[in-house]
Specification:
By secondary structure, the chain is α+β, with helices and mostly antiparallel strands. Helix content is 22%, strand content 17%.
Length: 217
């Protein structure tokens, strides 16, 4: 429920809504005993995320769902899906949280009494297949809907940026870790978005044991 609420903020453009399980309770005579009064995005729900921030997150999560670990969603042949896989330590939980503009769904696979699902099991294999099966039926007949692009966003070399934070004009690519001078490593990318503008991170040093653990997974 918490994940559904969290991902809905991206889906609806930055508004926090409260998921609920029961819409209405009536007595034997049809009298309404209780009725949910949910918040509505764009009306009475609080805005907790700037629309352009939500839009850029949607772009990132769309890439995950179409080209990354969530690319299994491509079997639905839709271009309006976003999502993210997740696997906890020792593969005790497998997740896929994804959404379309009108619908957020989260699938989970695991044991009630936590134990590993198997060292080669991941959210992309287990939970994603459940999500795809559900969304394939839930979105049947529903036209594709792209996210509305808010004001204040521009593109540079095909990448999205805040219009007031572009390379060379306020965008910070990296910040150093010198405690005596925290901004010593500041780089505002004068050379564009690619390698000329962003410093490549150092190559991590991986031990033999770590490499074996990674390959086993």
């Amino acid at each position: 429920m918490q994940l559904s609420g969290a991902y809905s903020v991206f889906a609806n453009g930055g508004y926090h809504i409260n998921p609920y399980l029961i819409a209405e309770i009536d007595d034997a005579r049809g009298t309404v005993m209780s009725r949910a009064d949910p918040l509505t995005a764009g009306k009475n729900a609080p805005q907790t995320l700037e629309p352009r921030n939500a839009y850029i997150m949607n772009s990132l999560l769309h890439t995950v769902a179409t080209q990354g670990t969530g690319s299994g969603t491509n079997v639905l042949k839709r271009s309006d899906l976003q999502g993210k896989t997740g696997t906890t330590n020792d593969a005790k939980d497998g997740w896929f949280a994804g959404y379309q503009k009108q619908l957020v769904a989260v699938a989970w696979m695991g044991y009630d009494q936590p134990k590993t699902l198997g060292r080669r099991e991941f959210g992309a294999q287990l939970a994603l297949s459940i999500w795809v099966e559900y969304m394939g039926r839930a979105l049947r007949g529903i036209p594709q809907q792209q996210m509305d692009r808010p004001d204040g966003i521009t593109t540079v070399d095909g990448e999205l940026f805040y219009a007031d934070r572009t390379p060379g004009a306020g965008f910070v690519a990296s910040i150093g870790f010198d405690n005596t001078n925290p901004m010593a490593g500041d780089a505002t990318t004068m050379g564009g978005v690619g390698p000329a503008g962003m410093q490549a991170p150092p190559v991590p040093q991986i031990t033999t044991d770590e490499r074996k653990q990674i390959m086993d997974k």
